[in-house]
Amino acid sequence: MSTRALLVGATGTIGSAVAAALRAEAVEVVSAARSGADESVDLSDPGDVRAMLARVGTVDAIVSCAGAARFVPLLDATDEDWSFSLANKLMGQINLVRFGAANVRDGGSITLTTGVLAERPMPGSSIISTVNAGLQGFVRSAGLELTALRVNAVSPGWVAETLSAMGKDPSAGIPAAQVAQAYVRAMSTVVGGEIVPAHP
Q: Which has the least CB within 10 A, 18, 37, 62, 149?
């Protein structure tokens, strides 16, 4: 029986690379994103997440490369900046686990996305660093409770293609295809509650 995976955020830079890496491993990928994918989903809307999961049904894995959070100087950040980021990248991915665990076959996996700014904050990253650190705490604790499946996360650093699109030196980042291999490893690990780095 082939492996079936729901990939949320499948149309982004990392998500597209993860889709290609999974298909190279003969995984049947059901793609989800705000638009341009097999399934449409607004990660910030719990009802929309539930509806998408109901349509997709049973899978062997859920992989999230989705979730937006804002890069804003601390004293310039508005209530809306915080609310948007918490609802999207933090609660959106937490809800994929809360609601999606029932969709995953026993022995399957859910892989989320955090980021290097949890460990290496920089000026302007207060929101993103908080969200990423919160996700890492959630993954570690969920891994202790959800013993029928494995909940892990990948922590990417700067992606070369993203830096290039921003007009910056791509050599300071890691190619998306290389980052994608961290998601393949996270899906195949036999333990839960792990944060898999995809940065130097």
A: 37
